[in-house]
Design goal:
Layout lengths: L1 E5 L1 H11 L4 E4 L2 E7 L9 E4 L2 E8 L7 E5 L7
Length: 77
């Protein structure tokens, strides 16, 4: 995993181009949802698209950026 630091415009572009990987908005938080059966019992679990998964939340920082952890194969500039 690596961490991307995204400003407002980059965060919107990142989510738009990576929604197929489970990234979305929840209010001001960037969220990544990953299918996982253990989401059924997880505090961070949720049911989406007919299956259980786990959500990872990345809140906006005090400086107005998001520090988003992404798999190593995800590229975004």
């Amino acid at each position: 995993m690596k961490t991307l630091t995204l400003d407002y415009n980059k965060a919107h572009g990142f989510i738009e181009s990576n929604s197929h990987r489970g990234y979305s908005w929840d209010g001001w938080d960037v969220v990544r949802w990953v299918p996982n059966p253990s989401g059924y019992t997880s505090r961070d679990g949720s049911f989406k698209n007919g299956q259980w998964g786990i959500s990872f939340r990345f809140p906006v920082q005090n400086d107005g950026t998001w520090k988003v952890k992404v798999p190593s194969n995800v590229e975004y500039n």
